[in-house]
Amino acid sequence: MTSITLAALAEHIGATLDGDGSAVVVGLNTLENADGQQVSFLANKKYKSQLEDCHALAVIVSPKEQSLVAGRALVMDNPYLGYAKAAQLLDDSPVSEAGIHPSVTIDPTASIGNNAHIGPNVVIEADVRVGDDVSIGAGSYIGVGVEIGHRVTIKPNVTLYHHTVLGDEVMVHSNTVLGSDGFGFANDQGRWEKIPQMGRVIIGEGADIGASVTIDRGALDDTIIGKGAIIDNQVQIGHNCQVGDYTAIAGASGVAGSTKIGKYCIIGGGVGINGHIEICDGVHVTGDSMIVKSITEPGVYSSGIPATGNREWRRGVNRYNQLGDLFARVKALESQLNQDD
């Protein structure tokens, strides 16, 4: 792991250092577990109480919480951003060296850029274009006509179907499938007739695609993921969808086909989004919500029901099931009152 002085770390993350900056930082850890060589951070007020017994070399905090830190503090308005920048600097993830493993299969018509790392058992099909400083992990499959930009990282066992496009500095994590067939079928008297999916998947510059994500190719138009978008593990995005720049979609969410999601949206975990609708820029959908119609105004939207005790939940369900009868009784009473008038 990289080591750095506290003063240099403060400069790197854009924090004001309160205390001696000569000490060397060798890692990051939580408030509860950090030792005297590690830096921690406070970004959630739920963990304020842990500051009292914290043994970290320094803590990244906001100006409001600085007085709670007994030792050294790295003070900045957004401690979580400071943590992110510190983690990038101190990241000890293995770095793959340039080179092509002997077991790789590369079609003669493919073009591979400079300083590429291509791991064992990778298959690269015809007319593929791979940019400079690209890393392709072991067991990945790169289909016909795929275009991969510069400084792209593809983790092991990723599948890119034909004509998929990845912009510069994209990250794709393991077991993700980009460009699989959209769910397109026509019904012929009870039997399903498959509709070939002829669009592409296009991933914008700097997007981060999590593990076991599936993004379907377009039926005719392309499926497009915008610049800087982040998509968590086990997300499904249907054919012809568009996801705007810098939008975040959390794990286990599903987006049905031909839906357009705007820029700077946040879609919580386990959200289901209906097809053929539009969500405008700046929308935040909380976890487990179901979006069934277009959203035209920025803001926070929710529909999930929080868990409660089973007895209380059953009582609520019973009351919900009685709403139809209650509505009919109210309508009958209204009608009677109108007749009496």
Automatic annotation (TrEMBL):
Protein name, entry field: UDP-3-O-acylglucosamine N-acyltransferase
Keywords linked to the UniProt accession: Acyltransferase, Lipid A biosynthesis, Lipid biosynthesis, Lipid metabolism, Repeat, Transferase
Gene3D superfamilies: 1.20.5.170, Hexapeptide repeat proteins, MurE/MurF, N-terminal domain
Gene: lpxD
Subunit structure: Homotrimer.
Enzyme Commission no: 2.3.1.191
GO MF assignments: N-acyltransferase activity; UDP-3-O-[(3R)-3-hydroxyacyl]-glucosamine N-acyltransferase activity
Species this protein is from: Neiella marina
PANTHER family: UDP-3-O-ACYLGLUCOSAMINE N-ACYLTRANSFERASE (PTHR43378), UDP-3-O-ACYLGLUCOSAMINE N-ACYLTRANSFERASE 1, MITOCHONDRIAL-RELATED (PTHR43378:SF2)
